[in-house]
TrEMBL record:
One of its GO terms (cellular component) is membrane. Keywords: Heme, Iron, Membrane, Metal-binding, Monooxygenase, Oxidoreductase, Transmembrane, Transmembrane helix. It comes from Sesamum indicum (Oriental sesame). It is a single-pass membrane protein. Its cofactor is heme. Pfam families: p450. The chain crosses the membrane at residues 6-23. The keyword Iron applies. PROSITE patterns: CYTOCHROME_P450 (PS00086). The gene is LOC105156386. This is Cytochrome P450 76C2-like.
Amino acid sequence: MDGFSVVALTVISILASVFWCSWKFKKSKEGTAPYPPGPRGLPILGYLPFLHVNLHHQFTELAKKYGPIYKLQLGSKLCMVISSPALIKEVVRDQDTIFANRDPPVAAIAATGGLGILWAPYGPYWRDMRKLFVRQMLSNNNLQASYVLRKEEVAKVVRDVSKKIGKPIEIGEMVFITELNVILSLLWGGTIDAEMRDRLGAEFRDKVSKLVDLLGKPNVSDYFPVLAKFDVQGIEKKMRAVVPGVEEILDSVIDERMKMIAAEGGKSSAGRAKDFLGILLDLKEQKVGEGSSFGLTQIKAILMDIVLGGTDTTATIVEWVMAELLHNPDIMKKVQEELTDVIGENNAAEEFHITKLHYLDAVVKETFRLHPPLPLLIPRFPSQSCVVGGYMIPKHSQVFLNMWAISMDPQIWENPSEFRPDRFLKKNGNFDYMGSNVQYLPFGSGRRVCPALPLGEKMVMYLLATLLHTFEWCLPERETVDVSEKFGIVMRKKTPLFAIPYNRF
Ligand code: HEM
């Protein structure tokens, strides 16, 4: 044997011993729990080539074969799919701290650097950012103070719809624009004049749609991190092309606001309804996480999260409610009767009416069950190995919580594919959005529950109450409602809904 072979053999033996020892150590740490069952895939690719477009349907079908917890190898990532309330409770309650972590997709890193709330890893930085958002921006006082901004936007949509009486309107587009305007007005309501706001809104709309679509596209780079630098599908490149445009808009609005602050002697919200940007700029330079300070980069990341997390979700659910009501005229009639009783023919809907609209609340809740905007929530990424339902979940596997399977389970919901709002009336059980009942989690649960839940609920209910109280809605002649869905980061309607408005009174 020559000298080189001896060295090579020694190195290989040392490496093999190190690998063996670390494998043994890992195994002993993991204990004896077995991995859950799951379908076999191809070498290297795993189950990736067999995935369908409507992932939530496919995951539900696989659960029928492999049970409420199963594993899938997707490229180099090991994924776990959990689809029973008892096991989901183990994740979001009993072991919430371990599962409060996330694995940001490449596209999300390209969008915000993972510096917002949505994709930040569980830890001090995420905790502080979330605290800022919840305590400062979404406090009861601020939500109430910003009602005037929501009211203006909702009045604007009423004016727009009134100009189109008797003509078909694309509902999804209308509610997307409205919800985006509501969010933008909450973000920087008083900063810019109406004309500039409309212009920026239109530019933003186009860019936000692109960002949401790119975030929802399955990306090979996420499943084969070694290939990420090649960006095989060009998703990262496309993302990096859209983001500067969004940042430019944010920069111009932030600049505008900074000038106003300077002119007003240092305080951002003087004399105006409190908008989020003003609140964020007041907090500038505070410490977040371990050492980083809350600067413009963090402000832009949080603004992007709010726009991305808040627009498509609220718009999509409003479109689904309209679709189900047009599909079920008897239920539409009951909703409108309740609106007339509570609000009165001569009055406009207001946010204080919301708590009295019990039937509309049940309709919205049933729509969330049947068409959850995030049917698999947002995947969790355990920060250490642990056991769920007697099976091993290794550290840094990707964990999907399949709420869609639970929504469609006949053991839990009688005739689950039927639209029956009555199941959510108070007398039939207690379902809130807070995640107290693990059978029903449209806003998630645990430490990562949607932080904007009170705002999301208000925006959805207020817009629906206004559209349904002010107008009668009909389908165009010979049209029917297609209630099939298209999976994405947010589950939208597959075909756009068109409806014709008429004045109700
Ligand atoms: C119909 C409306 C909405 C629905 C159905 C919804 C749903 C969700 C869900 C399911 C999650 C993940 C929860 C989990 O992992 O357990 C989430 C997280 C989040 N949502 Fe919402 N959301 C809505 C509205 C909003 C709005 C209006 C905003 C912002 C103004 C927002 C901002 C966020 C943020 C920042 C997160 C990340 C929280 C974290 O990771 O700590 N959402 N949302």
